[in-house]
Structure formats: C-alpha cells, structure tokens
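Q: Sequence in, structure out?
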Amino acid sequence: MVIKQVTATEGMQSEPVNVRIIGDDLETLQNLAQAAMKQIRHLSGIVNLNSTLEEILPEFSIRILNQNAAELGIPAAAITSTLGQAIQGLDVTTLSTHGREYDVTVKIDGKQIKNIDELLNLPVVSTNGTVYPLRAVIDISFDRSASDIRRFDQQRVVIITADVVGASQQSVRNQVKTIMSSQPLPPDYYIAFGGQSRGIADSFRSLLIALVTAIFLVYVVMGAQFNSFGQPLIITVTIPLALIGVYLGLLIFGASLSMNALLGMIMLVGIVVNNGILLVDFINQYRLQGMVKLEAVIQAGVTRLRPILITSLTTIFGMLPIALGLGQGGEALQPLGAVVAGGLFTSTVLTLVVIPCVYVLFTPGPKRLNPSQHIRE
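A: Exactly. Output:
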C-alpha cells in the first residue's frame, strides 16, 4: 500500500480529517471507504463523518445498439440528437432585444414524457426517411450511482472528511493515519491525506527550515560580535536547554505541538541566548581586568544574576495569559505562550549553572590563581 501527501490545490479543504482513497473502480472505492469509515467513526472526538460516495442516486443508463442502428440506417448522431432534444433541449438560435441576448431552446414538453416507455416511443428518422421508435436502436438499464464522482490525478477518488471536537486534532489525525495504514488495498490503489493535514505538514516543514536558519543567523551574529567561533558555541548550549522547557510547557498547560508552537520556538532562539550573551560577556570583561577564569565566572554570575532574573521573569509572566489561553480565541495562541514561557524558564535556570561550567571546561586560561602567583593571568 502506498500512502502519500496530496500535492495539488485540490487537497486544501479545511476539514481536520481529510482522507482520499484513489483508484479506478467506483465500487471498490466505495467498499474501501465504508470499511475505513466503520473504524474511524469510533474514534474519540470524530463528528460529521462523511464520504463523497455516501449518497447513492438511481439512474438510467442508455446504450446505443450499434448493430440495430446500422441495419436500420439510423446514424448515432440522430439518436443522440433525439435524446438530447427530449431531455435537455436544443439551442437553435439567439434572440437579441434591447441590447440583451437570449438563447432559444427547443425541447419536448415535460408533460408529454412521464415515464421511460414514452421516451422509448419517441420517433427517430433513418437516412431513407423511415421513422422508427427509439426502443429499436437503444437499450436502457436501471442502475445506481454516486451523486458526486470526483477525480484526482486522472483517477477516481473517494474523499472521507470529518471534524474533530473535544480532542486533539493532531492526535486524531495520527489515529486516522494508523487506521488507513492497516487497510489492505488492491494493486494500483493508494491513500492520500489532504485538508489541514497537508497544510500542517507543509507549514511544519517551512517552520523547521526557519528554525534552523534562525539558529545559524544567531550563531553568525554572535561570532562576529565576540570575534570568536568558540564562545558562541558555548552560548548556543542554551537552545537545547530551552527545548526541555518547551516539552514541559506544552505538558503543563495542556497545549499541543502546532504551527504556533513552532513560531514560539523560533522566538525562543533569539530570546534564550540573551542570558548566555550577558553572562559570557561579563566573564570576558572580568578576565580582561585581570581575574582568572574561575574567579571571573563566579563574579559574573553574582553580578548578572539579578538582571537576568528580572528580564526573564517579566517575559515569562507576560506570556502566562497567552499560555493559559485566556480571552476569546486564546486557545489558538496557547501553544505559543506555553512554549515561550516554559522554554525561557528552564533555559534561565539551567543557563546560570550550565553555561559557567561549560565556559570553565572549554575555554583556555588558568582556572584559578596559584598561591605562588602574584600576577593574575
């Protein structure tokens, strides 16, 4: 079985659940859709479950008896013209009046054809002028067909859609994908996911690229400012420390990983490094004043502790209303607030411990002053 993302704009419906089963045979598609819907409808949070092949309508199928038509000298065009005029009418001319044009359509009065037998009795003229009833050259059979037959990539497709209420949309989508992955499919049939699934996948991919780009740009800027490529690496340690808080923030505030959460992570890249920059910069300043490494690290931590806590706590508390989802429509931005608040909290706490340790271990210079030394290095 092949499962792939829909890549055309046809897949951009807004339903949280949008599953497409693609193949050639309509009856096979209907059976596959019914089997899938039977399992999907039992998932928690699924409402308004529908299928494009759910509504079946009766229809008459008309087939021209080519051999009979040839023997009687009746061309296929005459048969289709007669049927077209009887059912849809024939546009014969255009009437222009007062600057407007109107199509003139000739058709049989609907009151004259009340059932299929009266349609079969309509006259059709052969090439030699003989008149025959339509029943002599056509065959009509009763059938049932879907009211809406769609195609994707030149193949028939059945679309299963549903809304999600009272549950995580991402969780429900993952469960639907698991169900569809377990469905046995005939050869040349495959499953595609459209709607919000496709939009979210594309957005996640784009935002992940933006996240990596943001980390790279932050590193380049710090490298230029510190005139070093080693110390920016020490500062970027704060970014994975923030990821711990991202997970805890989503867990504590009950938010789900979404596009807004990824936007919050991109914001964190620029925010969490600030504390590390302040700390490392003050360490370098103290070392230039003559302090050895360990003494400079301790002094910088004591000096910058209060400003770091003030700036971090103001941002964290400013994000709390968003993280709590307060206000109308607040649940949409809740993941962003949870990510920023949680990531900034853990990065602030851990930065004060981890960054000094990493600095002491991986930067050159004596860690502490020897008793015999009178000049600090």
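Residues 1-13, 369-377 have pLDDT under 50 and may be disordered.
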